[in-house]
Amino acid sequence: MEDYRTLKYGDSTIRTINMEKEDWFVAKDISEALSISLSSDEELISLKQLFFLVEEDYSIEEKKAIHRFIKKTLLALEIKDEFLWFTYELCFFRIIWDKEIERNSNYEHSLKKWLCNNIARFFGAEFVLEKEEHPIGKLRADLLISKKGEQYIVECKTGKITPKHLEQIQNYLSLSGIDRGILVGQSCELILPKDIVFYAHKDLYKTEKN
């Protein structure tokens, strides 16, 4: 046990060890300190794996506890890795996002607003926002984004993508003369044409983490 160092978290002591330049924690200590049941039976859990816990089936309060611990750990270990701090911010968004899902109010509006502020983070570094509520004749598409001059119509939906949603974005593409479209929703079982791609709500966290 002499290779371990300890971190104080509230009234708990958590053992941690650095292996191959990565920080790991005794899973039992994490479980007891945060009052959560870890899904893994492994003796150790890495700092990076802690970020994935926010995606698992914990309550909002449990996710907040995980989030607080990650922040304190990053500070206590004096970690300056920009990727880890960026991922920490995404954990916070994941919690906010889950709360929005629970409330199920003004959900589509919140999704569009977040996408407007995080175009490059979600869709990719080369994407930029051109216009929110893009007018197409008397109609309005949710977003217009572009990548290296190629434009994309984006439509945001609260639930499962339906044939009506697909027909809607295809209509926008036809009327606007734009060749590419993106549907964002809860799930999609449709076979989409090659000019339209789908992003699930949950990918708001997972896409950025990869």
Topology:
Layout: E1 5-9, E2 12-19, E3 22-26, H1 27-34, E4 44-46, H2 47-53, H3 60-76, H4 82-103, H5 107-117, H6 119-123, E5 127-136, E6 139-147, E7 150-156, H7 163-176, E8 180-185, E9 196-200, H8 203-209
Parallel strand pairs: 7-8, 8-9
Antiparallel strand pairs: 1-2, 2-3, 3-4, 5-6, 6-7
Arithmetic mean pLDDT: 83
Number of strands: 9
Beta-strand content estimate: 25-35%
What Rg, in angstroms, do the CA atoms define? 21 Å
- Helical stretch tally: 8
CATH topology of the largest domain: Trna Endonuclease, Chain: A, domain 1
Order of helices and strands: EEEHEHHHHHEEEHEEH
Distance between the termini: 33 Å
In the CATH hierarchy, the architecture of the largest domain is 3-Layer(aba) Sandwich
CATH class of the largest domain: Alpha Beta
Q: Given the helix and strand composition, which structural class is it?
A: alpha+beta
Strand order of the largest sheet: 5-6-7-8-9
Q: What shape does the CA trace take?
A: elongated
How many discrete domains? 2
Largest sheet: 5 strands, mixed
Provide the low-confidence segments as ranges: 205-210
Percentage of helical residues?
40-55%
Can you describe this structure?
Helix 3 packs antiparallel against helix 4 (82-103). The strands form two sheets. The chain has a five-stranded mixed beta sheet, sandwiched between helices. A four-stranded antiparallel beta sheet has the order 1-2-3-4. A hairpin with a 2-residue loop joins strand 6 (139-147) and strand 7. It is 43% helix and 28% strand. It has two domains: 5-103, no CATH class; 107-209, Trna Endonuclease, Chain: A, domain 1, CATH 3.40.1350.10. The chain is α+β, with helices and mostly antiparallel strands and 210 residues long.
